[in-house]
Amino acid sequence: METTSAINIGIVEDQVLFREGVKAILNNWDNFNVVFESADGHSVIEKLGKTTVLPDVMLVDLSLPPKDRKEFSGLHVTLALAELYPDMKVLILSVHDDENFITELVKHGAHGYLVKDSDPQELHDAIVSVHTLGSYINARTLKAIQSSMGRKVKAKKLLVNISPREEEILRLTCQQLTAEEIAEKLFISVKTVNGHRNNLLIKTGSRNVTGLVIYAIKNDIVSII
Amino acid sequence: METTSAINIGIVEDQVLFREGVKAILNNWDNFNVVFESADGHSVIEKLGKTTVLPDVMLVDLSLPPKDRKEFSGLHVTLALAELYPDMKVLILSVHDDENFITELVKHGAHGYLVKDSDPQELHDAIVSVHTLGSYINARTLKAIQSSMGRKVKAKKLLVNISPREEEILRLTCQQLTAEEIAEKLFISVKTVNGHRNNLLIKTGSRNVTGLVIYAIKNDIVSII
DNA sequence: TTAAAAACAGGTATAAATACCTGTTCCGCA
DNA sequence: TGCGGAACAGGTATTTATACCTGTTTTTAA
């Protein structure tokens, strides 16, 4: 991957030492210009309005401290930046490697995610990647996204054998149809539908429809998208 | 991003010309070795079993033609590889830039996604990135993932106001507890639990628990992971 | 600082789902 | 080729969920 023209970088980070450290590291590379910095999420939008040189890439600390009572975390900064400056790339820096954290951020418009204990080379790659490719997602982040999307590669194998008829009834059940409605649709008796449902309960180890629905979603029998 | 040691690459692609073309391009770079190739999805697993040098990165054509009647597309190859060779990185090559296609693939274990009309440099970057970082997702792919996750975000905003008590009952309902069990757990009457459930049905526009469970999953009130 | 709204608790019928059965048919396999 | 197993269809009680109410308390906003 080649670094083309200079990249303007902004930093939103409350810890002074960390902020200065990152700045020092970034300035070690010729084509990185730190053109913006802010210590808290609240002032970011305000300060950006007064700036002539907008950052291409904004590094945002996830754990920005809420000012007053109102929450305005890295997530909110991300949301606001995505809304106001759609061309700006947001690269999250965080101490968390919690899957949910990562997924939430990416879902809300972050272009990349990096844990804070990454080495300088990783930071460099992430910035370049975010700038040139439009995103930076490493293996850890991808895994988080996949698991939050309900990747079910493993479970596919453990699938109990659901018969075609049972699957059909499961699918219709997930569409909030009652046994009676399913019976009408399939031209069979309500009792038969309930019979199949009971077999499904046993096969999937569920106690009631709730379990069936969750099973169906987990095993990609129905999609909730 | 620096290319470290040599990368062993496999190609699963039915179009001979395209396969040869990619091979020629890859061989132009010193540290890329094409060690495996296959024209269809079916023979991949079989052939891999007989191979001594396993590919680090497998390029998989998404639109592999189904052999006979049985479907065995790039998706199936991806699933099979993820299952059998968890360390192998799967990089999808596709003519489609359909969001659903991309998301499905990533969900099922692909480590990267690249449209076929990308230039050689992009292919190079993708292979290196998949190999060293464990993933390659460019702006287009990220957008697809985000938008497929995005429905959740929208729904979050349109969220009807579920009261804390209702959310609690919804959560327990999703754990396959009956109204009676929930009542015991919360030290309230079964009638009260049912009252809350009814309010939930109305608020979420559901017909029965099935709808509640799907609502809860869609809105991240419960996790199915 | 009160009205209004919403949360919370509970009640009564009724509809639906669940537990537990029987019998037939169809298919793989030894 | 006929045996075992599973799919499919149906039936009977019983349990559980749903529809539709009333009243009290707590929040919200004008």
Number of domains of chain A: 2
At the fourth CATH level, what is the homologous superfamily of the largest domain in chain A? Response regulator
Helical amount of chain A? 40-55%
Largest sheet of chain A: 5 strands, parallel
Structure description:
The structure is a homodimer of 225-residue chains. Residues 66-71 and 151-158 of chain A have low confidence and may be disordered. The radius of gyration of chain A is 25 Å and the shape is elongated. The first copy, chain A, has a 5-stranded parallel beta sheet, sandwiched between helices. Chain A has helices spanning 16-28, 41-50, 74-84, 99-107, 120-132, 139-148, 153-158, 164-174, 179-186, 190-204, 209-218, and strands at 7-12, 32-38, 57-61, 89-94, 112-115. In chain A, helix 8 crosses helix 10 (190-204) and helix 10 packs across helix 11. Chain A contains 11 helices and 5 strands. Chain A folds into 2 domains: 7-146, Rossmann fold (3-Layer(aba) Sandwich); 153-218, Winged helix-like DNA-binding domain superfamily/Winged helix DNA-binding domain (Arc Repressor Mutant, subunit A, Orthogonal Bundle). The longest helix of chain A has 15 residues, at 190-204. Helices cover 52% and strands 12% of the residues of chain A. By secondary structure, chain A is of the alpha/beta class. Chains A and B meet through helix 4, helix 5, helix 6, helix 7 and helix 11 of A and helix 3, helix 4, helix 5, helix 6 and helix 10 of B. Chain A binds a DNA duplex (30 and 30 nucleotides) through residues 161, 163-166, 178-180, 188-192, 194-199, 201, 207-209.
